[in-house]
Amino acid sequence: SYEAAFHGLIDRIPEDGLLVAYAGDEAVRRIAARAKCRVSFYALDGDDCGDVSPIWMGAIAPAGGGVTPIDLYGGGSMMGRVHFPMSGHHNARNLVGVLAMAAEGAGADL
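Request: output the structure for the sequence above.
Response:
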């Protein structure tokens, strides 16, 4: 199953590693709970995150000019607005996850 592949991936992340995971999916939360490393969750405003409080949040603002404005929050603080050229909640979630990984995993200054 696809869940078995994710279990295998998480089992290979070292204790000093990082897992950035989507908080709005119950299966992801359940599988991430077994990680030995630090887990940083992300989501969009309004996503059902169960009992998880995401560190990284995105809030889609009213669109205009052919871009999707997304307000990015990290640790409860507004990090800024990203003008994303793709539409849709799925793409917005992917962007928030990538920015979380860039900031926490690669030290990008957001």
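The chain has a mean pLDDT of 93.
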